[in-house]
Amino acid sequence: MNLTDYMQRQKAWIERSLNEWLPDLQTPPTRLHDAMRYSVMAGGKRLRPILALATGELVDADPEKLIKPALALEIFHTYTLIHDDLPCMDDDDLRRGLPTAHKKFDEATAVLAGDALLTLSFEWLAEHSGQLVTELAMAGGHAGVIAGQVADLAAEKNPPDAQMLDYIHLNKTAALLRCSIRIGAIAGKAPQETLNALSSFGTDIGLAFQIIDDILDSTADTDTLGKPAGSDQEQGKTTYVDVYGIDGARERATAMYQRAMATLREVDGDTTTLEHLAQFICDRDH
Amino acid sequence: MNLTDYMQRQKAWIERSLNEWLPDLQTPPTRLHDAMRYSVMAGGKRLRPILALATGELVDADPEKLIKPALALEIFHTYTLIHDDLPCMDDDDLRRGLPTAHKKFDEATAVLAGDALLTLSFEWLAEHSGQLVTELAMAGGHAGVIAGQVADLAAEKNPPDAQMLDYIHLNKTAALLRCSIRIGAIAGKAPQETLNALSSFGTDIGLAFQIIDDILDSTADTDTLGKPAGSDQEQGKTTYVDVYGIDGARERATAMYQRAMATLREVDGDTTTLEHLAQFICDRDH
């Protein structure tokens, strides 16, 4: 398979569907809807819905029924970015090469656009089933993504050790990538054993994803990243590169990747797409 | 029936249950959990869960299954208060006689505590069914509560006319009260006709609730309200008292109340509790 073609095809489908289903600009409150669309349509790899759909393919989920939950993961992700960028959190001005929501609109609109995307993500999941709502609420709530963000903010004042760094990113990043994979698997009614294996796979590639992110932040340039390179260091964030060094961080990402691949080999069915996606995550340059 | 006793009994049950199910203070992130509990346990009438449970009684819903969705309405309401009080929105320092969340903790913690309560509300609803998630997501999202908040913020710059004032409060306040009643009705599998009647009832008492709120803000004192009296005027908010005068606003609230009661008389079953609650909403002094 050609992963680049696959990802481009999926990305196009995802963005066409987002454009179709996000609240339109003619209906009030237009400024809110404008802000929601601005941040969601700003681009990105669409990795979370792509992972959900690829996992769905593996376990024979109906893609037409999975697309809306997959999109829910993307707009949930967008909400976390909008709120994380706020002045009271990371205070970022640039995201994907564009002004962040509170810069483009205003702070109140950014908070409310985030709230609205968060709420809409559950509406879209509930169209499929209450079980998918539970999955995202648990992965994305006080014991998941938000716990990670709280620890991340605290870490700006007290530099974290290796263990705390894992706690932050297992929650802040890996939880949602793992959830994307679980949602695909649950939509296809995967047996418990498969679900467990895919969950471990998701956690490992989730953490690898973050390690690579930290490596890119310290080595790539701003144009390639679409956000200021070296911004972690500027904000006083402790990264995997700080704790393990560039080579050590790369080794750790590779170890995660290899463990993820070993887990995936235990799963029945055609795992080619997930293998390629895992490889992409650990090889990407942006 | 004695409504005061009934409300005190329900409030005690609701607060005991909230205390039991909110994330505990021993589990990290403790500061986040502390902030969530601080705002939820700060008091209040618990009107939304009380309405849901009272409606459930009317249509024979199992109260043990309805309690968690009822609590979801309360923590959703708390999330809206926390975010509305933020400096970028209404910039309020006092709520229910206590410092607001961003004053007691900090702004980032307040945003995240709101996000966490919003997310947890959907987790609690999904324990019952996906349908209840859909109800709250639609009432509370971009086309409901958030639309009301957006219009309310815009109204600080451009004073609203009577029609816009209704739009704001139909969305910002009435939508969630109506949703509370619908959730009780749906949990009891009420027939469509009953659901429609109860929805209209909810909208009318919801708007009456806001009109009374505006009247109290302009007439009661700070101690009785638990928030600064006259704060609407100070913030340049246009109220029902501004548009209709005190007597006119009272008349409008009474008309809403009477229409709500007329609608309720069409509903089969013992509507006594809902009648008393509607009366309380239109007669209250705080």
Question: Which terms would index this structure?
Answer:
286 residues, mainly alpha, 1% strand, homodimer, 14 helices, 2 strands, Farnesyl Diphosphate Synthase, two-stranded antiparallel ribbon
Question: Can you tell me about this structure?
Answer:
The structure is a homodimer of 286-residue chains. The longest helix of chain A has 28 residues, at 192-219. The first copy, chain A, has a single domain (3-283), classed as Farnesyl Diphosphate Synthase (Orthogonal Bundle). In chain A, helix 2 packs across helix 6 and helix 7 (130-140) runs antiparallel to helix 9. Chain A is globular, with a radius of gyration of 18 Å. Chain A contains 14 helices and 2 strands, in the order ααααββαααααααααα. The first copy, chain A, is 73% helix and 1% strand.
Number of distinct beta strands of chain A = 2
The CATH topology of chain A is given as Farnesyl Diphosphate Synthase
Q: Note the total helix count of chain A.
A: 14
Major β-sheet profile of chain A: 2 strands, antiparallel
Backbone CA Rg of chain A: 18 Å
Structural class of chain A: mainly alpha
Strand order of the largest sheet of chain A: 1-2
Q: Which residues of chain A form runs of ≥5 with pLDDT under 50?
A: none
Q: What proportion strand of chain A?
A: under 5%
Integer count of domains of chain A: 1
Helix content of chain A: over 70%
CA(first)-CA(last) distance of chain A: 22 Å
Q: Please, what is the oligomeric state?
A: homodimer
How would you state the average pLDDT of chain A, rounded? Answer: 94
